[in-house]
Amino acid sequence: MIDAKKTIVVTGIGVVSPYGIGWAALRDGMLAGRCCLQPATDLYPGFQGTLAQVGGLPQLPESHHLSRSDKLAVLAARDAVSGYNGASETLRESGIIMASTVAGLSEIDAEIAKGAAEWYRHGGLKRAASYSVSCVGAAVAESLKIQGPCSTVSVACASGAMSIALGANLLLDGAAPMVLAGGSDALCPFTLSGFNSLQALDPEPCRPFDQNRQGLNLGEGAAVLLLETLAHARERGAPIHAILRGWAMTNDASHPTAPRSDGAGLAACIGRALEMAGCGINEVGYVNAHGTGTPLNDIAETHAFERAFSGRSTPIPVSSTKSYFGHCLGAAGALEAAITITAMQEGALFPTLRLTDPIESDSVDYLRGELRRQSLPVAMSVSAGFGGSNAALIFGRPRP
Amino acid sequence: MTATQITGIGSVTPFGPLAGLLPSISIAPRVITAWPTNGLRRAFLVETFRPAAVVPGLKTRRLDRLSAWALVSSSLALQDAGVDLSQMDRSRIAVVFATSFGCVELTEAFYQSANANGWSGTDPITFPETLGNAPAAHVALFHQLQGPNLTLSSKNFAAESALLQAASLLRHGQADMAVVLAGDTLTQAVYEWYEAAQMLAPACFNEEPLTPSTGFIPGEGVVAMVLEPEGKRQARSYAALLGGRWATGGGAQAYIHQLLGDGAPQRIICAGNGEPCASSSETCPALKIAGPDAVILLQQPVASGLADAGALFHLLLALSQRPGSGEALMLGAAGGSGFAVLHLELP
After folding, report:
1. In this predicted model, what pLDDT tens digit does every residue of B158-179 receive, in sequence order?
2. How far, in Å, CA of A158 to CA of B140, rounded?
3. What does the DSSP assignment read for A95-159?
4. Left if phi > 0, otherwise alpha if psi is -120 to 50, otherwise beta: which for B223?
5. pTM of the predicted model as reported, rounded to 2 decimal places
6. What would you report as the CA-atom Rg of chain A, rounded to the nearest whole angstrom?
7. CA pair distance B283, B273, nearest whole angstrom
8. N- to C-terminal Cα distance for chain B?
9. CA dist A348 to A228, A286, A304, A332, A341, Å?
10. DSSP string of A16-38?
């Protein structure tokens, strides 16, 4: 028997992705199997690589300087509530848990290193004011005039999924009637240069889970889910896109950057989420993997799936949708949550693009080639990040 | 809401690296010598110390000071709580870290390498240490804590939100214990930003005694607290966290009434996140609710210097004054930008 006051549902989804603004653009682009990754040379002098950018952002009325991550977040949040027809007071009292790793780094030039005071005098003061990751959540709050609890999570590439988990906790606490939870990150020289220095970038479009994978591509975007309890959603007659059945967060505590090679930390995270969801390993029909395309991540993740789904009657279907528009860092987990819900709604298991020679595993069914059509009552999205953090979200299709 | 106990405290602040409560001495801002300044500049700075001298075995050479201080303060807090980690299920221990600027020191170093060598010539060892979650990740790695590991920021109320979200993890069975940390480091770029934004108090520019004035004196440090559910382990408690809220808008008065019913707290702890709670339109009603006999623990400039991440330091300073037992409200106000209320029971 479902406790409607303790069941968290998704009633709005907002997306800004390299496909454009709106969840529909993401859905249509992915169902068409369109890849947004493109060669780029203009992010900074000397950079040559592949990435996915969001084009043509509309102007936003600003009372102060918004970073590009702030703008992406605001647009996604507006999209998430575009269908909201409840009381304005309820929206005003709602909570916000956003996620970002880049935040205002995109607004700061390397010239700041020559002399911060001088750089501030020449226009940097307002731009630097958007530096803190807290600005991403605050920008959403200001734009939508939301006055409830507001935080921004920054847990590297697991941030976006964690914001959804924390948003769900906030609802269970009764701290807000609804919560906007998601992530946003813009491309910028700082992160591109950082991943380049680590030799983690594939100069060509990435090939997650392929034995010949060379690394990741960076992307940018934002996704925001409108969360509320089932009881609250029913009361206001809201459309229910998905049930958030379970969530969990763990840490490998193994290495500052590399995942545990045996996948035990992520497997434990998946196990906890399954336990919370009251879900057996055979019920999960699809896993949207973290799947960065780096040599270390993809093998560790494969081992995690082998551990977590050990004893399953059939190999677990897995894909990495980072092969469509790259790794959007702090936004990735939220974007992939939106993609996982899309997969359930459409009965569409998205293949990993360019996957020709998958990592060998008897337990994992790496989706590749054509889009697979099948009914999908339960699906999972997992994320992991530098610092060893893991997050798992389990979504269920709403009952008719 | 089930009570959550604060059972251990560790800190790296201008008082130095310490376990437990702080000594009753007053701290004056120090003259900045770590970078060239245009005349005398002061701030509440942490004096340089060797982390391994405080916590044997710590290796912090390549880390941002924020990561190093997080390691030291978390170690001191766990030690103060009497936690024997070898006897604990470490997969059930969470780390929740609140910060405004994250690892800004190494972020500046990364910008310097970009400025010197171009974006194609940046330092791969520095980059991962610039990430906001690096301090919390190092805490997990050093203590082998495999529970949820969160780093978050909230305008004005990062520390309060960390405390409340950590309590939420315990309440929902997602962790059995949480190490909550809050702090920031002060660098030249941050200090000069405050100065350019004309946010500094006059006391930053001269060696006069502190007087009430506009502006603030920037500070730095990290405070760590161990949180446990009530009754899980026999441990000394500094305070019980009974409930609370942080919000970007108004409504503090209504929330305080909802929280307390007809009750009145005997103690008000002010956490200055931009506005003195004694004069804030959002929180001064609480002072009225408390009545004339209530003890008001005013915010102290040394903790206000931590801005968004200062609430744990404010709480530590208040507890260090040994304010006696009973109900307490900790209030933070930020002008029109919100409020934070923590409902506490002091033993």
Report:
1. 999 999 999 999 999 999 999 9
2. 15
3. EEEEE-SSGGGGG--GGGGG-HHHHIIIIIHHHHTT-STHHHHHHHHHHHT--S-EEEE--GGGH
4. beta
5. 0.97
6. 20
7. 12
8. 18
9. 26, 10, 24, 20, 10
10. EETTEESHHHHHHHHHTT----E
Cβ contacts (< 8 Å) between B124 and chain A: which residues? 194, 197-199
* B27-79 pLDDT, tens digit each: 999 999 999 999 999 999 999 999 999 999 999 999 999 999 999 999 999 99
A8-236 and A246-396: identical CATH topology: yes
Asked if A156 and B245 come within 8 Å (Cβ–Cβ), the reply is: no
Chain B residue numbers touching A383 (CB-CB < 8 A): none
Question: What is the per-residue pLDDT for B3?
Answer: 86
Q: Which residue has the tokens 């440090």?
A: B221
- The residue in chain B having the minimum alpha-carbon distance to the alpha carbon of residue A104 is B101
SS3 assignment, position A224: strand
Residue A252 half-sphere exposure, CB side, CA atoms within 13 Å?
26
Lowest mean pLDDT among A56-60, B17-21, B64-68, B220-224: A56-60
Question: In Å, how far from its chain's centre is CA A304?
Answer: 19
N residues, chain B: 347
- Which residue's structure tokens are 């030690």? B79
Q: What is the pLDDT of residue A182?
A: 98
pLDDT at B212: 67
Helical axes A23-31 vs A332-346, angle rounded to 10°: 70
What residue segments make up the domains of chain A, in order of their start? 8-236, 246-396
Q: What is the pLDDT of residue B2?
A: 67
Q: Which residues contact B300 (CB under 8 A, 6 or more apart)?
A: B314, B317
On the CB side of B206, how many CA atoms lie within 13 Å of its CA?
5
Token pair, residue A270, equals 């998946």
Give every residue of chain A whose pLDDT is below 50, as ranges: none
**Burial, A176: exposed, middle or buried (Cβ in 10 Å; 0-12, 13-18, 19+)?**
buried
Q: Report the relative pairing of strands B149-153 and B177-184 from DSSP bridges.
A: unpaired
Sequence letter at residue A154: S
Between CA A342 and CA A137 the distance in angstroms is 25
- Looking at residue B262, what is its pLDDT? 77
Percent of chain B whose predicted confidence (pLDDT) is above 90: 75
Got the DSSP string for B140-193?
HHHHT--S-EEEEE-TTTHHHHHHHHHHHHHHTTS-SEEEEEEEE---HHHHHH
* CB of A247 closer than 8 Å to CB of A272: no
| Contact call for B152 and A152, based on CB within 8 A | yes
The residue length of chain A stands at 400
Nearest-CA distance A81 → chain B (Å): 19
User: Dihedral of CA A211/A217/A221/A222: which sign?
Assistant: positive
Q: Which CATH class is domain A8-236?
A: alpha beta
Residues of chain A in contact with residue B134, where contact means CB-CB under 8 angstroms, are 256, 386-387
Alpha-carbon Rg of chain B, whole angstroms?
Answer: 20
Domain at A246-396: CATH code: 3.40.47.10
Cβ-nearest to A387 among B91, B131, B188: B131
DSSP 8-class letter at A60: -
Which SS3 state, helix, strand or coil, does residue B261 take? coil
The domains of chain B, with CATH numbers, are 4-238 (3.40.47.10), 240-346 (no CATH)
Token output for B237: 């408690």
Q: Which chain B residue shows the shortest CA-CA distance from A94? A: B247
Instruction: Break chain B down into helix, strand, coil percent, rounded to 5.
Output: 35, 25, 40
